[in-house]
Amino acid sequence: MNDNSTRCxxxxxxxxxxxxxxxxxxxxxxxxxxxxLPANFAIDSLVLCLAMRRLGITEQREIWRKSIIxxxxxxxxxxxxxxxxxLGFMLIIDAFHLSWDVYLFPGTTLLAIPGVxxxxxxxxxxxxxxxxxxxxxxxxxxxELSLALAFFTAPYAMLIPLYG
Length: 164
Hints:
Blueprint: H1 3-11, H2 33-55, H3 60-95, H4 107-131, H5 139-153
């Protein structure tokens, strides 16, 4: 054992920044994106199809075909914005050297709530504005589908704390 590891053990220093919270996967590309991308596509498709079925929309296949890529892209943009907001909060806390360990519960969860809310709001607003432009004209259906996508596809995984 070297002198550094002995000193860290004596003073109780831990490397909390070795493990990133789950939302960091949105900020840094990795092999996990090979799982995240198709999983998000499947979840977006499922939510859209179930919401259309519940609303009694008849041209489901055509609406799905014309809107799913936009919905998927909006979801990633919104999740990325929420992750950036959460990262910003963490950097502010770190800059002020607050004695709050943001990597452990409830720190990560409390800091992630605004990011999840921002992501959900952006999903609603952007889906409402861009996703259904070419395939739906009924404002009520656009509102209901956008609301379902925002509520059920918001990045709730950002609320899960990881322990260092």
